[in-house]
């Protein structure tokens, strides 16, 4: 991120959309970090980190998305694990559910192995019937072909890498199937 | 289709251990994995994530990692190989050590590994294949699909694989995905392969190939095929290639379709559609043809009248299904012309070391969810038999990771006493004069392969000779 020229941010707080992966402390006399963001504007609600409390030492999370859509097209998704655990994540309109898992570092082991190229089906998600029906894009034959290899396939299954988030879908709740197949042999 | 580059996304994060052990651990848990295919890397990923301070050492027989992702997955399926990005991130963890060019059973024994490590995970896959045991199987150009795959994918031991593509009729025996991979490679227009990481020698031979008709022959019917729908669809969509089926094979199939589970139903519907579109009368013999042949088992191979000691035709037995859906002979036979036969009836694991508890009949290491006994585990195809895609291998491997973690944290595997790990094994290898390849060394090979590929418009040009790999790995093998 060093040396990246960034426009001055508007005076709105920027939210860290994910927990920080790596935290650097930079001392900069000007009170700005390398992103050119005033410390007071950096907030990481999910971790309770408040950069504004550190005055000249600026906390920068590597995965901060300095992105002006953070304010506008924000969408929210809740991933529900097989054990019932709920994981809230945010993204922006146009993100796929795989993008949101990746950008939020949602800890779903093995999720998205082929990186969204429709060749692995590790990004399988199960939707509520009413959500499934209102997804704007119906699955293509190619997506169904890959889905057919997924474990715990249901009638409301889709591949997360093929679902594009819209404003209307914000607040979506999706079930993450237990990939644990009984590998006894 | 959405394409996404994950690049750095997963970095750092996956390696922060999430759970802490309740008991006080005095020494560092040292675990080694034999093999570096998907089973190995997924097991390692899980261990690094869940076992605090663990050190994982991977011993791989080749100087290069990734097993069948590099040497199995077809060159025209580059997306499947994206898993390599995640494996690479795991490999770059300070808790992981890759030691290439080390073979269990030759350079090291299982006993030595078990003495040096708290736990050993065997994940050396299945690198032999099943044979039919039929008359004429030793004739020239009756070859194993596994070796053909190794040849086009640059497996060092298959570089000089003797295959003659100067024939028109080829037959592939078996109805699995490997059979479709090799059939597709034989029927794909050469221009589509030029920009893949297929080896130069294979590209050159395939560009001169005269093969036009490929019969993919299964002993059972359309409802029993082992290949999957995506791979079938690719065959049906091959440019300038006609799919030919016998409509009689589908007589009883259609009525069964509605009662099938979705995956089998969709696959069968696509097969029926292919049968419907199959040309009835004579097909122009100059066209490229993919024949899907059902209910036929090979009986014997006959030499060609023109080329001595080489196959020219094959006798097939016509089958029907019994109540258990097994193939049983009807008594009638037929002969098909074929100058090349690729046997694709499955891979086979071997017992790499006499101490490996191996079930020869089933061709795997008996295990319960990956556990052979506390301290000894088995992951991937070696555990399950040679079936399943990366998804299934991954799921099984995570299960093995969980089993190891559970044994370590419960004390079933005692990690309170320090083990020497690579300190002892590295010394043994050194004493035995084994040249090893580190991850850094592999990165040198990788960079040279990619740069050679760039010069010819490919993602990489694989180095196919072990000595050259070793030279390049230490920076002396050219660029
Ligand atoms: C031709 C082919 C194409 C495939 N294509 C696809 C595909 O497109 N998509 C998909 O999802 N799946 C595909 N698969 C399946 C996939 O490759 C397997 O699920 C997976 O590779 C199994 O992983 P593994 O780690 O158990 O074995 P492997 O990948 O075979 O890894 C075993 C490793 O152990 C090493 N080894 C062997 N013996 C020793 C020894 N004695 N000492 C040390 N190391 C040793 C080997 O060199 C190898 O690196 C394909 C399989 C084949 C055969
Ligand atoms: N693109 C991909 O995703 C991809 C590519 C390649 C491989 N793979 C996976 O890798 C695994 C291995 O593939 P594979 O093709 O080697 O094995 P496979 O899927 O098990 O298929 C083996 C085929 O050989 C037949 N066969 C076995 N013994 C026979 C005999 N004695 N005589 C005649 N036919 C015989 C089987 O028929 P029966 O059913 O009658 O036994 C079956 O059709 C599979 O799980 C496959 O899906 C995936
Ligand atoms: S990420 Fe592989 S199919 Fe969606």
Automatic annotation (TrEMBL), chain A:
InterPro entries from the UniProt entry: 2Fe-2S_ferredoxin-like_sf (IPR036010), 2Fe-2S_ferredoxin-type (IPR001041), Adrenodoxin-like (IPR001055), Adrenodoxin_Fe-S_BS (IPR018298), Beta-grasp_dom_sf (IPR012675)
Subcellular location: Mitochondrion
Major localization class: mitochondrion
Family annotation (Pfam families): Fer2 (PF00111)
Cofactor(s), names only, from the UniProt record: [2Fe-2S] cluster
One GO term of the biological process aspect: steroid biosynthetic process
Domain of life of the source: Eukaryota
Keywords: 2Fe-2S, Electron transport, Iron, Iron-sulfur, Lipid metabolism, Metal-binding, Mitochondrion, Steroid metabolism, Steroidogenesis, Transport
Annotated signal sequence range: none
Residue ranges occupied by any 2Fe-2S ferredoxin-type domain in the UniProt entry: 75-180
GO function terms (MF aspect): 2 iron, 2 sulfur cluster binding; electron transfer activity; metal ion binding
A GO CC term assigned to this protein in UniProt: mitochondrion
The family this protein is said to belong to: Belongs to the adrenodoxin/putidaredoxin family.
Functional description taken from the UniProt entry: Required for ecdysteroidogenesis in the prothoracic gland which is necessary for larval to pupal transition.
PANTHER family: ADRENODOXIN-LIKE PROTEIN 2, MITOCHONDRIAL, FERREDOXIN/ADRENODOXIN
Protein name: Adrenodoxin, mitochondrial
UniProt organism field: Cryptotermes secundus
Classification of source organism: Eukaryota, Metazoa, Ecdysozoa, Arthropoda, Hexapoda
Name of the encoding gene: FDX1
UniProtKB/TrEMBL annotation, chain B:
Residues at which NADP(+) binds: 175-178, 219-220, 231, 388
Catalytic activity: 2 reduced [adrenodoxin] + NADP(+) + H(+) = 2 oxidized [adrenodoxin] + NADPH
GO CC term (a single one): mitochondrion
A GO term, aspect molecular function: oxidoreductase activity
Pfam families in UniProt: NAD_binding_8
Presence of keyword Flavoprotein: yes
Location(s), subcellular: Mitochondrion
Keywords per UniProt: Electron transport, FAD, Flavoprotein, Mitochondrion, NADP, Oxidoreductase, Transit peptide, Transport
Assigned protein family: Belongs to the ferredoxin--NADP reductase type 1 family.
Protein's recorded name: NADPH:adrenodoxin oxidoreductase, mitochondrial
Taxonomic placement: Eukaryota, Metazoa, Ecdysozoa, Arthropoda, Hexapoda
